[in-house]
Design goal:
4 domains, alpha+beta, Gyrase A, domain 2, 4-stranded antiparallel sheet, 23 helices, single chain
Amino acid sequence: MKYEQLAKDIIQNVGGKENVISVVHCITRLRFKLRDEGKANTEVLKNMDGVVTVMKSGGQYQVVIGNHVPDVYKDVVAIGGFQAAAPVEEEDGKKQGLFNSFIDMISGIFTPTLGVLAATGMIKGFNALFIALGLYTNKSGTYNILNAIGDCLFYFFPIFLGFTAAKKFKANQFIGMAIGAALVYPTLSGLSAGKPLYTLFEGTMFQSPVHITFLGIPVILMTYSSTVIPIIVATWVGAKVEKWFTKVIPDVVKAFLVPFFTLLVVVPLTFIVIGPVATWAGQLLGQLTIWLVSLSPIIAGLFLGAFWQVFVIFGLHWGLVPVAINNMAVMGSDPVLASVFAASFAQTGAVLGVWLKTKDQKVKSLSIPAFISGIFGVTEPAIYGITLPKKKPFIISCIAAGIGGAITGAFGTRTFIMGGLGVFGFPNMISPKDGITAGFWGAVIAVIVAFILGFVLTYLFGGAGKETASAGTTEKNNTNHNKAATKVEKAVISSPFNGDVKPLSEIKDAAFASGALGKGIAIEPAEGKLFSPVSGTVSALFPTNHAIGITTEQGIEVLIHIGMDTVQLEGKYFTSHTEQGATVEKGQLLIEFDIAQIKKAGYIVTTPVVVTNHNQFEVTQIGGNEVKAGDQLLGLSAKSVAI
């Protein structure tokens, strides 16, 4: 298994397999539902190689991995045995609010389909593009076969959603598929073309012809192919019905009588009541979306474009994705996803600005893969790894995305399919009927403008050069010193505390004890004062002030983590006397903390002092077992590179 160790570390630091209710994945992140999020070592996960960051949203504990998340997911599932584990009732976990439950439900139903939905949409989009370019006609065999591939999932969407919705509602997944298959059954779809028996609700917006009856009850035949709301509601009702029949039917005949009675009840009920009502609700939702956009397409595009990346960070975009899919199903196009199309390019432009401006080699190395991912529409590595930590580039990308959204609004851009992301998303804006229209060119212009604005504004005003200014000054003023520094073969890290020294392996945290987070030593502080063990720059200072990272001019990266799990104190009992990006001198007071109160709250204060880029150095203890702040603690000697 390629990611076996990473998978083991992730499972361990989300609280172990017994703390996991379920785990799924989307394009870039593992989405855990945990029994107790308090058992997860969030800070350890965030600092783990192979993990971009950790997010908590929509009732999910999300470990952001990046583009290779499917491979990591396979190893997590294999090692944790989650697929083979018995189903666990959600009630065993933490109760969720109504909004979080809704977001969790929507993401759970749609996430498994997104990869194939994007793939088939791309095929359909490119097919439309090739028709528009005159490479072949819509009568050719090539077109029809590619169109079948492109339509296969979206046309039969109720069947696929029947499966995922049943899984989410803890029902028989094949019953969910059977309900969906009944909704798109060709014979029933064809009956609506004949002469109606009579009309219901005549003279109202719900006026509908009746073509058939069921036991004398009128049935309003709707077109359910590509729809999303009817099957989700029907499957939810089916889950309730199935649960009731499971209770009352004897075990010996449950295997076939539970599906038998469930389908006999739910399918007719869906055609008679659930389907028409849900379809009308979907049509109303679509009309409401179009009405809101039509009030001011430019303002709507500006708002959606500017805040889309914020929605994604908090998982709120899941409330809009079903609306967009519903719009495409009932009206053939959607303005919502069109308005946010330029957002990924604005983010990518900002990353390019950071990459060209910064002199920080670590940021440069992160920027290249983040830029490449962003071009293809996957922006989490860019957001969490580059722009969000720097703040200004993220804000600039939101502004650029808002302007891009306003442009698509002005051009009346629509998406006609759920297709690819990033550069593969342009065919989504090609109309199946009219080909390349002004809306398509609006998307092209919006992307170009958003990308250029994101790049130029970040390069000029994004703050990516702040560290370069100080670095440049240092180079200019201390050229001889730096030249000498590169030839230094040894270095010393001093103790940041008064206290007793312990082996790192004695720390009650696997990530530190194993040396996965760095090589070094542990100290039991005798006094709640942390002094800088080296001269350098504060490269990381956690908001809770319980951990700090310092990088020296020679490139040594030192991490000091006060206590274990103290992040849960949320900054209580910790006071910082510095800030991220500040230049500090050896022996300077950086953080004060109340040892007595921290211990009283149930936490240990044993503190690891580690070199995180230890692969470049040999790290050894050179001090005694009892040290004072400023005493020699660790000795470093160069491996393959000079310090």
